[in-house]
Recover the amino acids of this structure.
């Protein structure tokens, strides 16, 4: 006897759309520190006796914050949004390979004013007078005597001594200043990339969804 097996149709499970707001990491950090007034917090949960930061992740810090079930209300203003606090915790716990606390402070300070590090875009070392002075003809580069006067005879045969004047020059900006500013910008850019990867991988954001948008990597070059 043949048995017929009737299979019920498989119903596809509808995929819930991601209703979180898409935002780039730079815009998200600016929002957290400038709009929500998030603060960096290096609490005891991430400190060691020698002052170095413990190797813990952002998710551990958030678990420690939620252990009490509430936040301490210090008064004066409301607490930042949850996503803003998550961002602040991620910034505060940047690894040393991406600048550590010094870079975290720089990121927070720049985000509060919506700025980026000065990469000295368009800067080129140039020779400039060390000092200037004003006379009846306007602003002139300052000069100074150099060496003994030069003796010569004028048209009338009179012996005169001419001063030897030079204009001291300096190089501004110096090449090492430009290089330092651009290294700092690249480290800041790399720290933002690290934050984007960490926040996206851990899935700790509830209202925002990170995109791949990033600031220009080398704004001083024609192809950023």
């Amino acid at each position: 006897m043949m048995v017929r097996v009737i299979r019920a149709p498989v119903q596809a499970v509808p995929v819930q759309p991601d209703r979180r707001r898409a935002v780039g990491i730079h815009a998200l950090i600016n929002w957290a520190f400038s709009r929500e007034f998030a603060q960096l917090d290096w609490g005891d949960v991430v400190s060691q006796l020698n002052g170095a930061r413990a190797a813990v992740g952002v998710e551990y810090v958030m678990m420690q914050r939620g252990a009490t079930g509430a936040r301490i209300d210090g008064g004066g203003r409301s607490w930042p949004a949850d996503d803003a606090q998550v961002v602040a915790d991620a910034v505060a716990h940047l690894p040393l390979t991406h600048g550590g606390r010094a870079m975290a402070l720089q990121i927070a300070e720049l985000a509060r004013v919506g700025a980026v590090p000065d990469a000295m875009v368009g800067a080129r070392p140039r020779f400039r007078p060390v000092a200037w002075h004003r006379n009846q003809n306007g602003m002139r580069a300052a000069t100074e005597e150099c060496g003994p006067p030069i003796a010569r005879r004028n048209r009338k045969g009179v012996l005169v001594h001419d001063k030897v004047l030079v204009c001291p020059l300096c190089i501004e900006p110096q090449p090492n200043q430009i290089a330092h500013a651009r290294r700092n910008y690249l480290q800041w850019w790399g720290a933002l990339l690290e934050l984007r990867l960490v926040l996206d991988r851990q899935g700790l954001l509830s209202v925002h969804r990170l995109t791949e948008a990033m600031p220009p990597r080398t704004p001083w070059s024609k192809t950023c």
Q: What stands out?
A: Residues 21-121+175-210 form one domain. Strands lie at 21-23, 126-129, 132-135, 138-141, 144-145, 150-153, 159-162, 165-166, 169-172, 208-210. The two ends are 74 Å apart (CA to CA). The longest strand covers residues 126-129.
